[in-house]
Design a protein that fits this description.
The chain has helices at about 10-20, 20-25, 40-50, 120-145, 175-190, 195-200, 230-235; strands spanning about 1-10, 30-35, 55, 65-70, 75-80, 95-100, 105-110, 145-150, 190-195, 210, 220, 225-230, 235-240, 260. By secondary structure, it is of the alpha+beta class. The protein has one domain: Deoxyribonuclease I, Chain A (4-Layer Sandwich), CATH 3.60.10.
Length: about 260
């Protein structure tokens, strides 16, 4: 069995101070993908500790973004796909090819910025990133390999993916034009939202909660963190869980890890 966790760490240095190491020891994932690492390249492996093979895409903007993949398994190759303008130097996309007992698995860690419904420029950047993702996902799907796209994509795809969907119909993160990218991935390209496929059709489970009010205590959250798989890999998924901290003050990130077990 292969356990893969994905989480926006909201700054790796802060996360490791607040309890991420304890979570790693308890959960013991084979692969953990991280977003908003916000640490220098030479510091990431040190912060995680011994025993991890780490690939990292650092943003050229200091203290911003950064994505990484850490694994106990052999990494045979990695790519940032920086030849695509939307991915270049911004620390928002990295791929790693893993050797799973002789089978090749490509794992991606991606981070899409929040966007701002009042800023056409910010929304254009977000859509350009989604379009670059679609191009790359189409290439990978045509290649026939097992692929897992993970990350904080900053969009709740369906009404079930956020508690207050009626109040967010005009908010970035739930705009129809953002959600349309996900429709295309799932309905046209054939990728699978693994957590949704395993969790069923009910609300949530959410992975991020606003700092406003008592959103965490009331579980008034958003499901904006994903594991999206090619259908051949999705068929191997057996279990999913959101590792939500028991209380607000015991969290080590403002996002909860998404953990999926695959029969590999």
């Amino acid at each position: 069995m292969l356990t893969i966790a994905s989480v926006n760490v909201n700054g790796l240095r802060a996360a490791t101070r607040k309890g991420m190491h304890e979570w790693l020891a308890t959960r013991s994932p084979d692969v953990v993908t991280m977003q908003e690492v916000r640490a220098p390249d030479d510091m990431v492996a040190t912060l995680l500790g011994e025993g991890w093979n780490v690939v990292h895409a650092e943003s050229t903007a200091k203290g911003r973004a950064g994505v990484a993949i850490a694994t106990r398994l052999p990494v045979t190759d990695s790519r940032t796909c920086g030849d695509r303008v939307a991915f270049a130097d911004n620390g928002r996309w990295i791929e790693a090819d893993l050797d799973i007992g002789g089978r090749l698995l490509t794992v991606i860690s991606a981070y899409v910025h929040t966007g701002d419904e009042t800023s056409p420029e910010r929304m254009a950047e977000k859509h350009a990133f989604f379009e670059a993702m679609t191009e790359r996902m189409t290439e990978l799907r045509a290649d026939g390999r097992l692929v897992l796209l993970t990350g904080d994509l900053n969009v709740a795809h369906r009404e079930e993916d956020l508690k207050n969907w009626k109040g967010n119909l005009t908010s970035a993160g739930f705009l129809p034009e953002e959600r349309a990218h996900f429709d295309h991935w799932f309905d046209t390209l054939g990728w699978v939202d693994v957590a949704r496929s395993l969790s069923g059709e009910g609300p949530g489970p959410y992975s991020w909660w606003s700092y406003r009010g008592r959103a965490y205590d009331n579980d008034a959250g958003w499901r904006i963190d994903y594991q999206i798989a090619t259908p051949e890999l999705a068929a191997l998924a057996t279990e999913t869980h959101v590792d939500r901290a028991p209380t607000w003050d015991t969290r080590w990130s403002d996002h909860a890890p998404i953990v999926v077990t695959y029969s590999m």
